[in-house]
Structures are given as structure tokens and as C-alpha cells.
Design brief:
The protein is mainly α. The protein has three domains: about 30 residues; about 45 residues, no CATH class; about 30 residues. The protein is about 80% helix and about 0% strand. It contains four helices and no strands. The radius of gyration is 29 Å and the shape is elongated. It starts with 7 loop residues before the first helix and ends in a 7-residue tail after the last helix.
């Protein structure tokens, strides 16, 4: 003996409503995913960011905590260039840096590669 709680029509109606809800949520999730991956910041916004952040960069460079390491690094690069070692390091390091950067871009689902 089978005891039915809901009639057959109501079961079909609930099932259809459930499937419609699931389909709507799936389409919404796909749309959100595409918006995240295709969002692009206009070049004008980057220019405005650089323009309004320039005083902060100058302030950072006036700080001895950042200025001295930058001067030290620049001095080391000049010495390496004068000795002829910098071009060699550049030729060896660029392919490795490109490979590493491309791997990071691939993991982040960015559409372009170096």
C-alpha cells in the first residue's frame, strides 16, 4: 500500500519549479564569472591614478627607509653594467622571468601572455 502525500501534478509542478530555479542560479553564476574575467579598467582611469598618486610616490622617495635601498640597488646595477655582467644576467634571467610571469598569468586566468 502506497500512501501519496502530494498528488502527481503537484510533484511535477514542484520539480519544474526546482529545475527553473536551478537553471536561473546556474545562468547567474556563469554571468558573474564572465563579468569578473572580462572586467577591464579604462586607460583614462590608470592615467588619473598615476596623476593623483604622484605626490605619494614623491613622498615615498623622500623617505630614507625607501630611498637608501633604491639608491643602493641602482648603484649595484650600475656596477654590474660597468663590469659587463648585467647584460649576461639579463639574457639569462628574462626567459625565466617570462616563464614565471606567464605561469602566474595562466593561473589568474588573464587572457594575455608575455
Amino acid at each position: 500500500m502506497h500512501l501519496k502525500i502530494l498528488p502527481e501534478q503537484e510533484i511535477i509542478q514542484v520539480k519544474n519549479k526546482f529545475m527553473d530555479g536551478i537553471e536561473f542560479l546556474y545562468e547567474e553564476a556563469i554571468a558573474r564569472h564572465k563579468n569578473i574575467s572580462t572586467t577591464k579598467i579604462p586607460v583614462v582611469m590608470w592615467v588619473l591614478l598615476v596623476w593623483f598618486a604622484s605626490d605619494n610616490v614623491i613622498g615615498w622617495l623622500s623617505s630614507p627607509i625607501l630611498f637608501y635601498p633604491i639608491v643602493l640597488l641602482a648603484g649595484v646595477l650600475v656596477i654590474l653594467f660597468q663590469l659587463g655582467i648585467l647584460p649576461i644576467l639579463w639574457k639569462l634571467g628574462m626567459p625565466m622571468a617570462k616563464d614565471h610571469t606567464n605561469a602566474l598569468l595562466e593561473k589568474a586566468n588573464v587572457p594575455f601572455r608575455l
